[in-house]
From TrEMBL:
Protein name: ABC transporter ATP-binding protein
Keyword terms of this UniProt record: ATP-binding, Nucleotide-binding, Transport
Phylogenetic classification of the source organism: Bacteria, Bacillati, Actinomycetota, Actinomycetes, Kitasatosporales
Domain (ABC transporter): residue spans on this chain: 5-230
PANTHER family according to UniProt: ABC TRANSPORTER ATP-BINDING PROTEIN ALBC-RELATED
Length: 298
């Protein structure tokens, strides 16, 4: 399977003495995945997306996007930043016309217009008169109208109402399924991610903590409740409960003792890893970066 994004030892510091916003990140995101980029506030998600979009350079390490340096394939990449910058003076129709002019080879005007129409927006309305959620819809119409191969979305749904979120996520997923678009999308809304995404990148303190297919990652963990010795297994998080101990583990061989075992949900997996900040990282096969020097350097 080909690679959409590959990071090798990626480091980003803001300022000479700043702490690392990204600290030795190495991972591979295969093409065609809809990947959730998750992590606590300040984990480095926006920084990673901005570097991948070619808007910021890393301090050291390598990042390859669609087989080249970030920014090289800008025509095939759509990036939606958290603040979704649009020209306030322009009308929606003018904004979409600008999208057509900036993307002459790829622009799908009918598709962009349909996304706007679904939000009952008047194409003549000026951007400055729109609500935050309505602006998000126009920004997503611009991004999707470009028919990108890779979408980098920084909390795209944060200010949408539940219906609009559901509808636009559906549009995004259908588009990705039909065209094989790769999506890397940051969000704090786990329910939204569980429905839409098939892949996960969990960042904590600038480091990759989990990477891989969501099914593979949940299958690699067990939520166990009971009594017994967990020595020899990787215990991500453990706490006393009414029935002994409840722990999220990665088991290595059979469990000794009396345990009830179940596969964790995505939410249980994420919450445990977010709380247990020093749990060992896990990248599933296919999502580890190549260690050879073939990645494109910064
Ligand atoms: N322009 C900047 N100058 C200095 N430090 C910055 C800058 N942008 C981000 N940082 C720092 O880099 C770290 C990572 O920030 P980033 O915005 O990438 O995190 P995030 O995971 O997107 O957070 P959130 O979930 O709150 O959006 C934080 O410690 C932040 O303070």
């Amino acid at each position: 399977m080909s690679t959409a994004i590959e990071a090798t030892g990626l480091v980003k510091r803001y300022g000479r003495r700043g702490a690392a916003a990204l600290d030795d990140c190495s991972f591979r995101l295969p093409t065609g995945r809809i990947s959730a980029l998750v992590g606590p506030n300040g984990a480095g998600k926006s920084t990673l997306l901005a570097i991948a979009a070619g808007l910021m350079r890393q301090t050291s390490g390598q990042l390859e996007v669609l087989g080249g340096v970030p920014g090289e394939s800008r025509a095939k990449v759509a990036y939606l930043s958290q603040d979704k910058p649009l020209h306030p003076q322009l009308s929606i129709a003018d904004t979409l016309r600008l999208g057509a002019e900036l993307n002459p080879e790829r622009w799908d005007g009918a598709y962009a217009a349909k996304i706007v129409e679904q939000g009952d927006l008047d194409p003549k309305a000026r951007i400055r008169s729109l609500s935050g959620g309505q602006r998000t819809r126009v920004a997503l119409a611009l991004a999707l109208g470009k028919r990108p191969e890779l979408m980098l979305l920084d909390e795209p749904m944060a200010d949408l109402d539940p219906l609009a979120r559901h509808e636009l996520m559906g549009t995004l997923m259908a588009d990705a399924a039909e065209h094989g678009t790769t999506v890397l999308m940051s969000s704090h809304i786990v329910a939204e991610l569980a429905d839409a995404c098939d892949h996960l990148l969990l960042l904590g303190d600038g480091r990759i903590r989990l990477g891989g297919g969501i099914d593979d990652l949940t299958r690699a963990h067990s939520l166990v409740t009971g009594r017994g010795d967990l020595t020899g297994h990787t215990v991500v998080e453990s706490r006393a409960s009414g029935r002994g101990t409840t722990a999220l583990i990665r088991h290595d061989g059979p469990l000794g003792g009396d345990w009830q075992v179940q596969q964790p949900s995505l939410e249980e997996l994420l919450l445990a890893h977010l709380r247990a900040t020093d749990a060992p990282a896990l990248l599933t096969p296919g999502t580890t970066a190549r260690t050879s020097g073939s990645a494109v350097s910064a």
